[in-house]
User: Which sequence fits this backbone?
C-alpha cells in the first residue's frame, strides 16, 4: 500500500491548477461573472455529487446545487483564502443539511441518530435519480449511505467517494482531522455492516461482486 | 474480562480505518501491523473495509446534469438583492447605533443624577446630623458654655426632661432644665445629684439616636447603590452595544 494513497486520489480527482483558480478568484472579487462561472464549471461536479449523494434525489440535488452557487456568488467576498473547493463544499454541505432538516424536521442530526430509521430508506428507491444511482451495487451503497447520520454521510462522500484529503474534508466540514478520522471510521463500519446485511438479500450474481 | 478482551484486541476499528488511509503514526502503524499478523478477525475487518472503500471509490462519478453557471440576469438579481440587503442592514445598524447610544447617554445621565442625589442626601442629611450629635454630646457633657449651642441644647434639654421624668424621683431636675443656660452649674456642682445622673443618661440618649440614624441612612444608601449599580450596568451594556454597532457601521461603509 502506498504511504499516502489520498494524494494520488486527489491528483486524479482535480485536474485544475491552483494558480488558475487563484487568478480566477482574483477576478471574481471585482465582480466578474465570467471568472465566477469558470469556477462554477470547475467545481459543479463535486458540488452536485455531494448534494446528490447527501439527498439521494436528483431534483433536490439540482436545486440545492444552484442555490449553493448563487449563495457563493453573493458571499464571494467572505471567502478568505484556503481551499476554494472546500469553501464551496462547506456551503453545499450546509445547504444539504438544511434541506434534510426541512425535509424531516423530526430527525435530529446528531451522531447517534438515524441509523436504524427506515424513513431514510424509502427515499432513494422511489425518487427518479437513475442517472447516477444506476446499478444494483451503486443503489445498495446509496441505500446504505442514507442509513448513516448526515454528518457521517458527508464525511464518507467527501473522503471515500470523491477522494478528498483528510485536510480538505476537515476544512469543508469545519471539523478537526481527528473528528474526520473518527466519523469516517464509524461511518465505514456502519456502512459495511449494512452492506453485509444486504448481501444476504441480494440475488446470486451480486453476492460475488459485493 | 474486559481487560483480556482489550489485551487481545489492542487495535480498534478506528485504527484500522486510519491505517487504511495511511493516517497512523509510524509507531502505531507498526503496532497495528504486528497485531494484524496474529489476529485473523482484524485482518478480515480490514479486508472488508478496504473492499468497501474500493467500492465507494469506484462508484460512477456524478456529473452535473447541466451547467450551473449563473446567467447575467440571475447574477444581477442576486447582486441587487445583496446590495439591497446590505443597505437595509446599514440603516438598521445606524438606527441601532443611535438607539443604543441614546440609551447609554440616558443611563449615564441617570447615573449622574443619582450620584448627585446621593451626594446631596449624604451631605444634607449626614452633615447636620453629625453636628447635632456632636453638639448634643458636647452640651450634655456640659464642658462648653451653653449659649454657644443654645438651640440644640433646647432639644436635648427637652429630651432630658422626659428622661428625668421617667426617673421620676427628683423635683430639682425641672428647675435645672428650666434654667437651661446654667446647665453647667449642675455639672460644676457635684452636690446636685440629678444633674450628675442626667448627663450620663443624656449621653446614652444621644448614642442611641446616633445608632438609629446611620442604620436608616445605610439602608437608604443600599437602595441608592443598587439603583446606581443598575444604571452603571445599563451604561456599560448600552455603551458596548453602541460601540459594536459603530464598528459594524464602519465596516459596512468600508465594504461599499
Assistant:
Amino acid at each position: 500500500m502506498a504511504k499516502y494513497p489520498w494524494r494520488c486520489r486527489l491528483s486524479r480527482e482535480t485536474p485544475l491548477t491552483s494558480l488558475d483558480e487563484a487568478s480566477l478568484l482574483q477576478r471574481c472579487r471585482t465582480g466578474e461573472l465570467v471568472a465566477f462561472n469558470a469556477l462554477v464549471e470547475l467545481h459543479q461536479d463535486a458540488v452536485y455529487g455531494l448534494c446528490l449523494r447527501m439527498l439521494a434525489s436528483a431534483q433536490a440535488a439540482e436545486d440545492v446545487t444552484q442555490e449553493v452557487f448563487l449563495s457563493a456568488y453573493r458571499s464571494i467576498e467572505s471567502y478568505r483564502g484556503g481551499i476554494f473547493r472546500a469553501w464551496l463544499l462547506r456551503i453545499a454541505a450546509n445547504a444539504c443539511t438544511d434541506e434534510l432538516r426541512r425535509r424531516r424536521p423530526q430527525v435530529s442530526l446528531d451522531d447517534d441518530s438515524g441509523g436504524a430509521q427506515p424513513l431514510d430508506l424509502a427515499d432513494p428507491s422511489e425518487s427518479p435519480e437513475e442517472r447516477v444511482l444506476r446499478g444494483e451495487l451503486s443503489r445498495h451503497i446509496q441505500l446504505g449511505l442514507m442509513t448513516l447520520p448526515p454528518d457521517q454521510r458527508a464525511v464518507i462522500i467527501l473522503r471515500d467517494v470523491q477522494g478528498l484529503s483528510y485536510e480538505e474534508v476537515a476544512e469543508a466540514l469545519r471539523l478537526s482531522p481527528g473528528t474526520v478520522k473518527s466519523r469516517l471510521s464509524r461511518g465505514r463500519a456502519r456502512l459495511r455492516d449494512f452492506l453485509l446485511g444486504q448481501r444476504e438479500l441480494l440475488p446470486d450474481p451480486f453476492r460475488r461482486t459485493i | 474480562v474486559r481487560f483480556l478482551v482489550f489485551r487481545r484486541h489492542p487495535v480498534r476499528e478506528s485504527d484500522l480505518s486510519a491505517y487504511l488511509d495511511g493516517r497512523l503514526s509510524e509507531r502505531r502503524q507498526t503496532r497495528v501491523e504486528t497485531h494484524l499478523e496474529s489476529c485473523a478477525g482484524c485482518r478480515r475487518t480490514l479486508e472488508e473495509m478496504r473492499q468497501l472503500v474500493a467500492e465507494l471509490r469506484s462508484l460512477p462519478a456524478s456529473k452535473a446534469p447541466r451547467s450551473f453557471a449563473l446567467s447575467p440576469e440571475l447574477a444581477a438579481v442576486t447582486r441587487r438583492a445583496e446590495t439591497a440587503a446590505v443597505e437595509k442592514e446599514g440603516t438598521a445598524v445606524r438606527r441601532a447605533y443611535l438607539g443604543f447610544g441614546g440609551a447609554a447617554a440616558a443611563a449615564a445621565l441617570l447615573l449622574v443624577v443619582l450620584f448627585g442625589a446621593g451626594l446631596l442626601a449624604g451631605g444634607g442629611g449626614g452633615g447636620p446630623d453629625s453636628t447635632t450629635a456632636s453638639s448634643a454630646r458636647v452640651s450634655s457633657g456640659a464642658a462648653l458654655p451653653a449659649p454657644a449651642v443654645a438651640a440644640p441644647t433646647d432639644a436635648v434639654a427637652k429630651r432630658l426632661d422626659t428622661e428625668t421624668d421617667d426617673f421620676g424621683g427628683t423635683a430639682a431636675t425641672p428647675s435645672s432644665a428650666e434654667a437651661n443656660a446654667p446647665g453647667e452649674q449642675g455639672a460644676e456642682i457635684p452636690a446636685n445629684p440629678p444633674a450628675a445622673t442626667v448627663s450620663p443618661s443624656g449621653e446614652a440618649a444621644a448614642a442611641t439616636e446616633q445608632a438609629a440614624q446611620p442604620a436608616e441612612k445605610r439602608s437608604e444608601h443600599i437602595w441608592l447603590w443598587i439603583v446606581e449599580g443598575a444604571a452603571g450596568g445599563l451604561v456599560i451594556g448600552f455603551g458596548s452595544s453602541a460601540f459594536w454597532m459603530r464598528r459594524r457601521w464602519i465596516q459596512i461603509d468600508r465594504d461599499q
About this structure: Chain A touches chain B through 53 residues (CB under 8 Å). The first helix of chain A runs from residue 5 to 13.
